[in-house]
Amino acid sequence: MNTGKSTQQRKKEKTGQWNDTSIYTNAGIYRTMIKEKWGNLPLKKINRNDYEEHLAEMLGQYRRNSVLTSNRLLNSILNDAVKNGNLRQNKLSGIYLGESELEPLNKELKIDDFQTWIKTAEELLSTTHFAFVYLTIFGLRRGEVCGIRFMDVTFDSNNRAVLNIRDSRSNRTKDGAGRTKTESSVRYIVLNDRGSDLLLQIMETAKQVKKKADVIVEQEKDYLSIRIKNNKYYLERPAFLNKIFKRVSEECGIYITPHIMRHFFTTQSLIAGARPEDVMHFLGHASLQTTKQYTHIKEERAHNVTDLFDKKVL
């Protein structure tokens, strides 16, 4: 038995723990970082010392998080083999992973930079494009923003929009996945007043596009992220959000992506005092550990502690 697709991986695909995008991502990690060196080698012949040398090489080529992800994937394959009686033990368990020669991507975003960036976005973009950007402030994944349909939107007694996040569109599932990244990603998101107004703008624009293109779309495929070209109706490619973000970032010199916005939401929510469990469910994470990995609160939390102390004591 070699490091090909494991029983556990197949189980995750079959039970919906991984969606098409997750499957595609893990397949890419396996193909680029595991297959060439270990793909055809029987599991029992994998040598710990050889693997440690391999990790050192990888840390010279990739960022630490990428190497960490590939290490987890290979270890999950070996653990699965042990669980199913195909291997006596996982020889790679507990290996120390050093630091990469490449600087980690900086996903920290200060409030001042966020405010500058969002102000630039509002001034630079059309109202509809700015509205899509604004939705990412609430911690939504790019695919989830693109997966919002008319049927997923309701309004509460205060006229605030409530989103039922239950579909996603990625570059692998441009026409809709019919589900979210994981089962835990299915959830409700409540927008603030401004977000609700902007969402209404998106909905009105989508209605006008369909009217002009003279199309009727079935409810399950009636996405809000659409456009018209030469009087024809098209779904926006999920990458359109990244292009919008890049345009704003180049204009103001502050680099932000939809995923960085998700990190920012997590960090600021926890700083503001939200319960970690509530943030976990709001983000659609399956565990608190994942939520904690999204936080960047060192300096800002220190300032927050000072501010709280100042208000209470001084």
TrEMBL record:
Origin species: Streptococcus suis
InterPro entries associated with the record: DNA_brk_join_enz, Integrase-like_cat_sf, Integrase_catalytic, Integrase_recombinase_N, Tyrosine_recombinase_XerCD
Statement: the UniProt record of this protein carries the keyword Cell inner membrane: no
Domain Tyr recombinase: 104-307
GO MF annotation terms: DNA binding
Name of this chain's protein: Integrase family protein
PANTHER family: PHAGE INTEGRASE-RELATED (PTHR30349), PROPHAGE INTEGRASE INTD-RELATED (PTHR30349:SF64)
Family: Belongs to the 'phage' integrase family.
